[in-house]
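Task: sequence in, structure out. Protein: Ricin B lectin domain-containing protein.
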Amino acid sequence: MSRTSRVKRGTTVVASLGIALLDGTATTAQADPLGGLIINHGTGRCLSTGGQYGPQAVSCDEQDGSQKWRVDRRDDGTVRIVAAWADPYRPCLASYIYGGVSMGSCDDGTTGPIWFIRDGGKLEQLGSEKWCLTVKDGNLGTDPCDSGYNRYQDWILPVS
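Result:
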């Protein structure tokens, strides 16, 4: 993946849910009580639960419930990325070391559904390796986290 320079400090980006200010802190969109879109900086595509092979990055559609997410912050500084469906079973975005991303139980007893938010918008999986959620050709996976800005690893997160 190619590296790009960070958007100049103070530059505003208009997202489909509102205006986000890129200032080195976590970039977020407007609050939605049911959840919001998680948008990739590099592709402008949204994280979706749906897909034959699991979560993927697709064209953003605010009406598509499979693209609504909640970022549940935990006391230890980690987060869970929870599908914001009306269904009582709300699975989490889960990662497994060396590339795999899927939907799984938020309480499966592993580190898979637990993430850190790093460098303003990277989603780094909990574990001994530093692997971040990455978009490649619309597909999701994890790759070693790049230091600094990597548009395919940086995400606009919903307010939670």
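The chain has one domain: 12-158.
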